[in-house]
User: Fold AraC family transcriptional regulator from Chitinophaga japonensis.
Amino acid sequence: MNEEQQYPDFILLNVGHAVHNADWNWKNVCSPFTRIHLVESGTASIIREGGTYELKKDHLYLTPSYVHHGYECEGSLSLYYIHIYEEMGNRPSIFDLVDFPVEVAADPLVIQLIQRLAFINPDRGLQVYDPRSYDNSSTLINNIAFHRTTPFAFEMEARGIIQQVFSRFLVHASGKNLDLDERIIKTLHHIHTNIDQPLNIEDLAALCFLTKDHFIRLFRKHMGCTPGKYINQKKIEKAQQVMLLKDVSIKDLAYSLGFENISYFNRLFKKTAGMNPGSYKKKICQPGR
Assistant:
């Protein structure tokens, strides 16, 4: 791991054990936090753009933040859930650097660790399992605030457990990896450090001492998309995060992220998030909707 790559910094939002009976059926879920599920028994499915994953006993399932997905459950299901929020600051997300598997087998130790995590955090369980009831601005802010009041010993233990659980997915990661080209790492760091500024592809290419065409090919090879598409995606994700945590006008938000054309920002937001920024802001400001 080079100096630009750091261990992810996760905040525990929710953890608990749930039993469902054909009532874990939700569509169009897309959250600013990452979910991990440990299946104890029963049958259900997670639906993602890449396909449908039939849940298996004693297996872990990872759904990163801002991944559109859904759930289907036609019978009984018992599982543990963990919701974690990645504090990135000005560095890339771990999910930008690594392609993680959706499913991995859970060893006996990680099962015990998840049970322990739920035991030492009895107040972090969900009261209602409908994502619309907790996937909103006020709930996220309250969970982050609650995290900051956790006794240091429990917080240290929780972070250690989360890292252990997350490492099970990292072991099986493929595609992008922690040995990304140094020029791409430098580019990602520059993008995230300057996400509030207009970002020019020519300037990024010059940063890497490459021609524009060579830079675009190199970026696509490592990141699976063009630098322009990546920048737009990260700017909109940042906009969603800001709206979750602050009360800001759409105009000021667009300007704060380096957009000079509000109409373009609105179109890009809708294309990325599935709704215009005004509708998104209204949605996240209605807890328990």
